[in-house]
């Protein structure tokens, strides 16, 4: 994964609590992967590259959360070439599609299959 970006900013606190977002390119398409409600503000050292298996945070209950859990959200601006069952359009304030929310389980299980070295 490349482009890890710590999006925590006290002036931008939201219902997501402590979070980390990063960009991952799969088959030429960029996906934003966000890890939300982390226990502490994550910090990624060095050049921002995250390696497979690297711990980026701990489960938490920050933001508008009622218990410890990890919320993973995957979005893209490109319409995904996957069954419609596994994504939803994201609408902007004008009622136009501004992106797509991908089912995170499907993304991790199916879409990353060819990207993960064995």
UniProtKB/TrEMBL annotation:
The lineage of its organism: Bacteria, Pseudomonadati, Spirochaetota, Spirochaetia, Leptospirales. This is M23 family metallopeptidase. InterPro entries: Dup_hybrid_motif, M23ase_b-sheet_dom. It comes from the Bacteria. Residues 23-76 form the M23ase beta-sheet core domain. Pfam families: Peptidase_M23. Signal peptide: none annotated. It comes from Leptospira jelokensis.
């Amino acid at each position: 994964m490349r482009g890890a970006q710590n999006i925590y900013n006290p002036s931008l606190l939201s219902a997501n609590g402590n979070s980390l977002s990063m960009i991952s390119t799969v088959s030429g398409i960029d996906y934003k992967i966000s890890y939300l409600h982390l226990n502490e503000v994550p910090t990624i050292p060095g050049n921002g590259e995250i390696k497979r298996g690297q711990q980026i945070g701990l489960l938490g209950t920050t933001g508008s959360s009622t218990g410890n859990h990890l919320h993973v959200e995957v979005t893209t601006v490109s319409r995904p070439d996957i069954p419609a069952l596994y994504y939803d359009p994201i609408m902007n304030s004008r009622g136009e599609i501004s992106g797509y929310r991908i089912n995170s389980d499907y993304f991790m299980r199916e879409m990353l299959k060819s990207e993960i070295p064995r």
